[in-house]
Amino acid sequence: MSLNKNEFFPVGALEQFLVQIGRVVEIGGRQIAVFRLSDGRIFAAVNQSPHPKGGPLAEGIVSGHYLYDPLYDWKIDLTTGLVQAPDNGQAQMLTTKVEDGQVWIAAGELQAV
């Protein structure tokens, strides 16, 4: 999939994304985990844990702006994708925007697998 880095794709209406519940959307065959925080901000990450054994992120628990990995309980900062100490790693985050009630993701930021 060849995308312009600044190209945004619509992934659904804002009300389709429940507060503090991850939802998986697909862009170009890749699963993206989308999270809506209690303050209304939207974050998106490739739906793959940065843990060496991998796993889904969308099933994690959201608290504030942190996501707790559902398999390894790693604490991930959704604003940066960084795993918090004592663990380390980084989730691949994607830029999001909300316009006219529609959630958009900068799919051009997807790195090759």
UniProtKB/TrEMBL annotation:
GO function terms (MF aspect): 2 iron, 2 sulfur cluster binding; metal ion binding; monooxygenase activity; nitrite reductase [NAD(P)H] activity; oxidoreductase activity, acting on paired donors, with incorporation or reduction of molecular oxygen
Keyword S-adenosyl-L-methionine recorded: no
Ranges where the Rieske domain occurs: 9-105
Biological process annotations from GO: nitrate assimilation
Coiled coil location: none
Listed CDD domains: Rieske_NirD_small_Bacillus
Domain of life according to the entry: Bacteria
Keyword set, alphabetical order: 2Fe-2S, Iron, Iron-sulfur, Metal-binding, Nitrate assimilation, Oxidoreductase
A Pfam family it matches: Rieske_2
Keyword Ubl conjugation: no
Family annotation (InterPro entries): Rieske-like_NirD (IPR012748), Rieske_2Fe-2S (IPR017941), Rieske_2Fe-2S_sf (IPR036922)
This protein's name: Nitrite reductase (NADH) small subunit
